[in-house]
């Protein structure tokens, strides 16, 4: 694709914003006492802050990692309705998933840029965005067709791992791919939020008209099908993030960054400082950073808060409860996690105060049934937190 600068000021704002578009988070997914009134709900730009510490399921119930020996990483096919509904059984606020648009204009949920398969022993790859919907859905398990007398035929589904190996995409609980529209229709409850990552290839330079066309296809489905479901957008692609903010003013838009773990030609992707700058210039709601980047540079959290931006994180460390709790103490607004059962329950235990702890904070001694003192969640003074923040960057290096 030829290089063409994206001038968001030249892009007309869409006129498809509906009156019933969701502006606030559904209170049924949040604990009592969360303020969802003005200032506490979802706004569209800088100044938006989630009304509580958010837990977001990565690709639903968690990503599939075939290099990991942990069986949880291959328990359920990622980015499927099954995965989203499995995640919804736990006290999550959102599920995160990746959206691409097929050649014939249908938004589908799939992470990788390429689909791998084989034919007569020969492995081949096809770019998702160069497939039509029917071709995309032909890979992997198939839905039963009640009108057909013969079983559905599927094409083998393989995956390329980070170390370059091509492996069979085998999970304990498999399911066909799905479209964005099917996710809105089939994921329950409707109060479970969708964190829609706008997926683009890091190695492709996109023309403005292509980006606008893709985003229009996605936004049409969102506004037609959301029906009050909380939605936030995010993207590693800076121009896509700016454009989706320009094209609509209902749902918050976050800029994703690996905070300098990898160097890109586009300098806007290379640090938390650049991410903050992009958000402020483009009116975005906040940053979603790789968690190690935040731990290496904890001072950036203060800068983000001073800028009235929101900060979420992603990464392997978010599957460690203690790392998640530290982020809560630092003022980070939420985490994207793979181990949704363990982390969501840990967050509830660590962050949501029990009745007994509320009474203890009021000066009453916290006692067990036998009269012994019960240990509550860890409490840190500002001085202790400052020390931990200085220590963490050193620990992350090892």
TrEMBL record:
The lineage of its organism: Eukaryota, Viridiplantae, Streptophyta, Embryophyta, Tracheophyta. PROSITE patterns: GP_PDE (PS51704). The keyword Hydrolase applies. Pfam families: GDPD. InterPro entries: GDPD, GP_PDE_dom, PLC-like_Pdiesterase_TIM-brl. Its EC number is 3.1.4.46. GO terms for molecular function: glycerophosphodiester phosphodiesterase activity. Belongs to the glycerophosphoryl diester phosphodiesterase family. Residues 53-347 form the GP-PDE domain. This is glycerophosphodiester phosphodiesterase. Signal peptide: none annotated. It comes from the Eukaryota. Keywords: Glycerol metabolism, Hydrolase. One of its GO terms (biological process) is glycerol metabolic process. Coiled coil: none annotated. It is an enzyme of class 3 (hydrolase). It catalyses: a sn-glycero-3-phosphodiester + H2O = an alcohol + sn-glycerol 3-phosphate + H(+). It comes from Linum tenue.
């Amino acid at each position: 694709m030829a290089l063409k600068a994206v001038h968001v000021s030249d892009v007309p704002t869409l006129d498809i914003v509906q009156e019933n578009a969701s502006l606030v988070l559904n209170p049924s997914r949040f604990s009592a006492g969360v303020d969802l009134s003005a200032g506490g709900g979802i706004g569209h730009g800088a100044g938006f802050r989630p009304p509580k510490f958010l837990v977001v399921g990565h690709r639903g119930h968690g990503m599939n990692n075939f290099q990991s020996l942990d069986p949880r990483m291959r328990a359920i096919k990622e980015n499927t309705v099954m995965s989203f509904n499995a995640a919804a059984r736990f006290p999550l606020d959102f599920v995160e998933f990746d959206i691409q648009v097929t050649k014939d204009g249908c938004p589908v949920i799939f992470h990788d840029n390429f689909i791998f398969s084989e034919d007569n022993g020969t492995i081949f790859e096809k770019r998702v965005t160069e497939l039509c919907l029917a071709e995309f859905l032909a890979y992997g398990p198939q839905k039963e067709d009640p009108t057909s007398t013969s079983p559905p035929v599927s094409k083998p589904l393989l995956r390329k791992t980070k170390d370059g190996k091509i492996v069979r995409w085998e999970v304990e609980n498999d399911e066909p791919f799905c479209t964005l529209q099917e996710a809105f229709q089939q994921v329950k409850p409707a109060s479970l939020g969708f964190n829609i990552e706008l997926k683009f290839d890091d190695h492709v330079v996109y023309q403005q008209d292509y980006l606008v066309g893709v985003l229009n296809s996605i936004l049409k489905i969102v506004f037609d099908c959301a029906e009050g479901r909380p939605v936030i957008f995010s993207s590693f692609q800076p121009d896509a993030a700016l454009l989706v903010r320009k094209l609509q003013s209902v749902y918050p838009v976050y800029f994703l960054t690996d905070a300098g773990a990898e160097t890109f030609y586009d300098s806007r992707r290379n640090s938390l400082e650049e991410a903050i700058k992009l958000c402020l210039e483009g009116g975005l709601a906040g940053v979603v950073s790789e968690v190690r980047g935040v731990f290496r540079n904890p001072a950036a959290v203060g800068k983000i808060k001073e800028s009235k931006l929101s900060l979420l994180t992603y990464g392997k460390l978010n599957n460690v409860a203690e790392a998640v709790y530290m982020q809560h103490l630092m003022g980070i607004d939420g985490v994207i996690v793979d181990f949704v059962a363990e982390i969501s329950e840990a967050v509830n235990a660590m962050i949501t105060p029990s009745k007994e702890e509320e009474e203890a904070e009021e000066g009453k001694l916290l006692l067990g049934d036998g009269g012994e003192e019960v240990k509550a969640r860890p409490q840190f003074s500002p001085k202790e937190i400052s020390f931990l923040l200085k220590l963490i960057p050193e620990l992350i290096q090892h």
